[in-house]
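[Automated response] Your request has been received and processed.

Submitted sequence:
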Amino acid sequence: RLMLRILSNPRRLCTGTARRELLEVGAAGVLGLGLDALLASQAANREARAADGRSADSADAGRFFGRAKHCILLYLYGSPSQLETFDMKPDAEVEVRGEMQPIPSAVPGVSVCEYLPETAQVMDRVSVVRSMTHPYPIHGVAYATTGVPTIDVAAELNPFDVRHHPYFASVVQYLQRRQRGGRLPDVPQNVALPFPFSSKRSDQPLRAGPYAAYLGAAYNPLWTEFVGEGTKVITKSRAAGFSFTGPEPYLGCTPDSHFRIGATGRLPDLTLDRLNRRRTLLQQLDTARRRLEAHAAVASFDQFQQAAFSLIDNPRIAEALDVRREKDTIRLSYGMTLFGQAALAARRLIEAGTRVVSVFWDEYGLAGDAWDTHANHFPRMKEQLLPGFDKAFAGLIRDLDARGLLDETLVMVLSEHGRTPKIDSKPAGAGRHHWSRAYSIVLAGGGIARGRIVGATDRHAADVADNPISPKDILATAYHLLGIDPQTTLPDRTNRPIPLVPHESRVVTELFG
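Generated structure:
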C-alpha cells in the first residue's frame, strides 16, 4: 500500500478515521496513484456495456452512443427566466406573462421571446427541454454540472466541500486519459472560459461547481484569462449597499479582445502564503516520488506537471484562443461581447482538438449578478442579458453548422434553475426569484434532434405538466452521446465506487434524432 504523510500529525475525526489517513488518500487522488489498478477489473465491463449502449433506457439509443466527438457547454450563471426565453405564456395573467412578447421561430408553432430574434432563426437546429425540474432552488452550479445527488448553500459556496463530485468536463477528461492508457493528448481536453469561475465578483466566497473534486486538481478545467476591455460603463447594485460601476465586457468589449491560458488547474484564491505551503508540500511529495519512481502513476503525475507548463506555450491552443485571427464578419456574428467572443473561442478550441469547452456567463464586479434577476428584471433582460446571449448562441449554432461541426459537437445551454412565475413588484424594476420546479434548457448537435420541444409546463410555467427531466438526466444523456456509460463508477477519496450520475438517472432518448 502506498502511503504518503501530508504535513500532519495523527488526528481522529468523529468517525474514528485518522485525519492523516484521509489526507493520505486525498493525496493519492491528486497524484492519480493506483486509480488505474484499482479500477482495472471494472474497465472491461464498462467498455463492454459502452459498446452496445446498454446503459440507455431504449434499444434505439445505442445508435447515438458516442455520436458526439466534442462538447461546448454554455453556462448561464444565475438562471434565466423560462418565461422570457423558451417557454412564454402569452395567455397568462400580466403578473405572470410580464411585458415581453413572443415571436415565431423557424419551427412552426414554436415561439421564443422577442429579444431573441436571431435565436428564433436557428430553432430548427436545436431542441428545447421545457420540463426541467429538481428540488433545490439555490445557485447549485455543482448540482447542475456534477453527479452530486444533493446540494445545500454550504456546499454551493465551498469548492473544497468533501461532498462534491467531479465536474462533467473533468470526468470526460479523466476517462479519456484512462482510455488512452495514461498518455496525455497533444492539446488540453478540458478548457473553460473566460476566467476562473466566480473570480471577478465582489469579495465573496468562491462558488463550487467546475472543479474535479476527488479526481484531483490535475483534472480541474484549464482556465483562460480574458485580455481586453469593456466598452460600456454600467452601474449595478443590490441589497445591503453593494454596488459596482465600471466597464462591463459582457455588454461589449474592444476589438483587440482575446483569451490566453491562465490558471493551470488551481483554485483562483491561492494566496502567497498558501502557495509557499504548497511548495513545501510539493517538496515532500517529490521526496516520496523519488522513493517510488518505479510506480507508473507517479510517472504520469510527472507528465501532468510538465504538461501544465507546456500548455502555456502550446501554439495550437494559443492560436485557438486568439479570436483576433478570425474575420471581422465572423467575430461580429457572435457579438463583440465577452460571452460572444468566448463562444467563438470555444469553436476554435474544438477545431484544435479540445474535447470539452465550458463558457460561463459569470458574475462580473458584483455578487448576485449575471442572470440572477431578483430586481430590475425586465431592464436587465432587455438591455444586459438577452441581446448578448442571442448573438452568441445563434452565431455559434450557425457557425458550427456551416463548418460541418454541429452534428459531431454537442452544445448545451444550462443553468441552475428557472425563475418564479409570478413577478414580484416590490424590488426596483420588479423581479423574478429562484424557481426549480420547472424551467428550460437548450441542446443542439452531437445526436440531438433538430427543431424538437421535449416536455411541457402548466399555464404559468410553474410546474411540469409532461415528462419531468432532472439535471442528472441531462448529464446522463451528455455522457451517453460522448460515448461514456453514465453508470461508470469512479473511486472517491475513500475508494468507494461512485457512479457518474445517481442510479435513477436516465438517458433522455426522446431528445435524439
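Summary generated for your ticket: The two ends are 49 Å apart (CA to CA). Residues 109 and 174 are 42 Å apart (CA to CA).
If you did not submit this request, please reply to this message.
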